[in-house]
Amino acid sequence: xxxxxxxxxxxxxxxxxxxxxxxxxxxxxxxxxxxxxxxxxxxxxxxxxxxxxxxxxxxxxxxxxxxxxxxxxxxxxxxxxxxxxxxxxxxxxxxxxxxxxxxxxxxxxxxxxxxxxxxxxxxxxxxxxxxxxxxxxxxxxxxxxxxxxxxxxxxxxxxxxxxxxxxxxxxxxxxxxxxxxxxxxxxxxxxxxxxxxxxxxxxxxxxxxxxxxxxxxxxxxxxxxxxxxxxxxxxxxxxxxxxxxxxxxxxxxxxxxxxxxxxxxxxxxxxxxxxxxxxxxxxxxxxxxxxxxxxxxxxxxxxxxxx
Length: 307
What we know:
Elements: H1 12-27, E1 40-45, H2 51-62, E2 66-70, H3 84-91, E3 97-102, H4 107-113, E4 119-124, H5 130-144, E5 150-155, H6 162-171, E6 177-182, H7 191-199, E7 205-208, H8 211-214, E8 220-223, H9 234-240, H10 248-251, E9 259-261, H11 282-301
Parallel strand pairs: 1-2, 1-3, 3-4, 5-6, 5-8, 6-7, 8-9
Helix pairs in contact: 1-11, 2-11, 3-4, 5-6, 5-11
């Protein structure tokens, strides 16, 4: 039995096979309609979510399985003080696989240690978000045809943004990827990402605070929102929340084959006027997320499409 807690839990080769499966699902969706007949996924979401939770549920339903779970800690026995360990022991009696989102870093790891079913980390605090990373990898590979030889701009909340941390961890394995880290000083990447991931792997990167100057060099621009829920006080959030806004004027500075990604939800950081630009790929990214999660569920449950 395997879990997915970190994007590095799968090797580069395993990730490639999973993305190949996701692409096959994209092009032959009806052929996968019954591969998980009789299987159940439990979505244990201690934090609010729209895309990730519904994406997991859509993925299992597309595979012929069914869904149970909760969408907030307040609607679960966590409100009564039940531990993550006890919750997963109980859920293991009901479901075949589970996806967990939790505000505390490491909670899915704790769950995996007490679980008799595969556990998928659907986001733990500001730590990791491996299924979003798999979605990002599929999106980039589909758009550019590769996962190497590119310059990736990561813009916004790089301190608390778990999607950014996971994506950096994953992309450093592919070679010749340069990162341009665009943020105000208060929201720069954590020291452990800088030291243990980028510098330790001799990855080229630069930290800047000007988005306009970075735009012409980018192959991928990965925008993120400033996350109100991660801030300790409202004043800092208000001061930083609109530090970067991508609009048509900024898009004119970019290459014709540069693409914009965003894990969503967005607040103000991408103007709606950018949505019609063919380089805006964030809604395609959402669709790819369903295919990736279908492939992941099949992989962890060790089920295959019948010939």
